[in-house]
Amino acid sequence: MYNSRMNKPIKSYSLPELQDVVKSLGQPVFRAGQLSQWLYVHHVDSYGKMTNLPAGLREELAKEHPLHTARIVERRVSDDGTRKYLVEFHDGVCVETVAIPSRGEDRLTVCFSTQAGCPMQCAFCATGQEGLERSLVPGEIVDQVLIAQEDMGKRVTNVVGMGQGEPFLNYDNTLAALRILNDGKGLAIGARHISVSTCGIIPAIERFSQEPEQFTLAVSLHAARQPVRDLLMPKASRYQLNELKKALLSYVESTNRRVTLEYIMIEDVNDREQDLAALNKFCQDLLCHVNLIPINAVKGSAFQPSSPSTVQKWVDSLRSRGKEATVRDSRGADIDGACGQLKSMRNR
After folding, report:
1. How many angstroms separate the Cα of 31 from the Cα of each of 14, 38, 61, 184?
2. Rounded distance, CA 98 to CA 145, Å?
3. Which residue, of 126, 289, 303, 321, is most buried by count of CB atoms within 10 Å of its CB?
4. Catalytic residue at 166?
5. Could you tell me which of 301, 309, 300 has the C-alpha nearest to residue 292?
6. What span, in angstroms and rounded, lies between the C-alpha atoms of 35 and 47?
7. Which residues of 211-240 are buried (b: 16+ CB within 10 A; e: fewer)?
8. Which residues pair with 109 in a beta bridge?
9. Does pTM top 0.90 for this prediction?
10. H helices within 28-90, ranges in order?
11. What does the pLDDT look like over 35-50, one tens digit per residue?
């Protein structure tokens, strides 16, 4: 049960929990809808600006539930129009967020973070080198999208939880944020335009398959041979590939939705003939789309991207077996805003 003495920041709550907050303060439930509009549509930075809420309610909220607003402390703009933001929260913790405008289309995608840092320690990822600072609350996740939308001056149409952190190790807060983004009275981003990427946390994948919304699941596979995956993703090794495959088959059966498999291609590490054969076998009876991603440069890493000819060979091989395969157009690499490049520190 909600306890008003906890003095939790207002953006720590899910939309249903906001109803509990206003009811605990003696207010009708519809006030929660007004409150969420101020927080996640108008994106105000103080209760004083919430003009259709009673003054007494605003005073109680300000006393019991601090309203913190994230801010941009650094902005970098790529030659391709991508923008990367270093976003700072009230306690000084920072994450990076990327806004990606589509070429020739009226579409804006925001890649958001769910944790400051990441505990997974994937060998190819700059975020993993930092370790985990803390998980984000729902409003901090949503604030990243709102900040990008305001800075870009156009509506966000797609969001992807592919920034810093492992979303499924912050499951409840991540799902609460997705529902705020999807809310028809809020940002109203369609569920099919909301994607979440996981390293393969099997219990959370099983839980995700039971959620009512049609959110998209992406899995960071990066190797279909266990020894290679263990090398690249040591913290994911507790979830073996054979068990992950079972979980994904079950997910598809439960949801009737395909899974996106993300595969970073690293020269002479996970791009050999046996790696391709293993990937084809993994995909064989799975409804999936394979997204091949030539690795982006990360300072201090010896990993190099697979050659264009190797990448094309993989695309052709997967397609010849009836699988949809694409090569990710990694945007923002010149500002360290592409896949695997995100960190939480200011530039020196």
Report:
1. 14, 11, 12, 17
2. 9
3. 126
4. no
5. 309
6. 9
7. eeeebbbbbbbbbbbeebbeebbebbeebe
8. 100, 158
9. yes
10. 30-40, 55-64
11. 999 999 999 999 999 9
Burial label for 34, CB within 10 Å (0-12, 13-18, 19+), is: middle
Write down the H helix ranges in 153-272.
171-182, 202-208, 226-232, 241-255
Residue 326 has pLDDT above 90, yes or no: yes
Q: How many CA atoms lie within 13 A of 143 on its CB side?
A: 27
The model's confidence at residue 17, banded by pLDDT at 50, 70 and 90, is: very high
Active site annotation includes 94: no
Which three-class secondary structure state does DSSP give residue 217?
strand
Tokens of 107: 């579409």
Angle between helices 30-40 and 15-24 (to 10 degrees): 120
d(CA 283, CA 102): 29
Specify the 3-state DSSP secondary structure of 159: strand
